[in-house]
Amino acid sequence: MLPPIVTFFLNELSNNNNRKWFADNKPLYIEAKSAFEEVISTLISTVAEVDPDMKDVTPKESIFRIFRDVRFSKDKTPYKTHFDAFIAKKGGRKSIYAGYYLHLTPGNSLFGGGIYAPIPEILKALRQEIFNFPDEFKSIINNLDFKMVYNQLFEDKLIMAPKGFPRDFPNVELLKYKSYITSHPLSDDDLSSPELQDKFRMLINTLYPFNAFLNRAIDFQEEKLDF
Prior knowledge:
By secondary structure, this protein is an alpha+beta fold. The chain has one domain (4-224): BirA Bifunctional Protein, domain 2, CATH 3.30.930. The chain has helices at 4-15, 19-24, 26-50, 59-62, 120-132, 134-141, 144-150, 188-192, 196-224, and strands at residues 83-87, 99-104, 109-115, 180-186. A four-stranded antiparallel β-sheet has the order 1-2-3-4.
């Protein structure tokens, strides 16, 4: 189960999102952050049981900062009101690879994965892999277990076929995605359940074939380019 201090801190921060409160409650933040790091450490170990490429990933490189960049935002609140982490080989949250994402916000948490807004060279490689092996990719995303858990891919798509690919390709819709990501909601009851680790294991096992397909394409691309 998720340590209660994590939810408590995030709820308090949501109601007091200002620098004075944060400074006055720095010990509370440190305690909650440490608890979340333990969650991610355990999650990395669980991911590595299925995806050995993740065994050397660390919580430090996976966890996102809680401080917001407000320079170009109308919302000037200084802190995120969630904890999140991205577990991926060769860089964690900064990796070019598909990985596993956990987002914790009381009442609006999720687990998911894939690759969000990849650089053009990587996106083209992903589309090329799908173009070359459409039946394999469809067998993954149309698998009954996958669809029951993750339902669909994030619907941020081009209107037309991407440049360099034929418009009459029968599976052209699969090439239009700008990101290849999916997610599964986590309720507060899920997070407080003693069965949470089993839930994570199921989510990871179901997501692994999707990530493995994407990372195969990225591995091939990385051999050609110096990232």
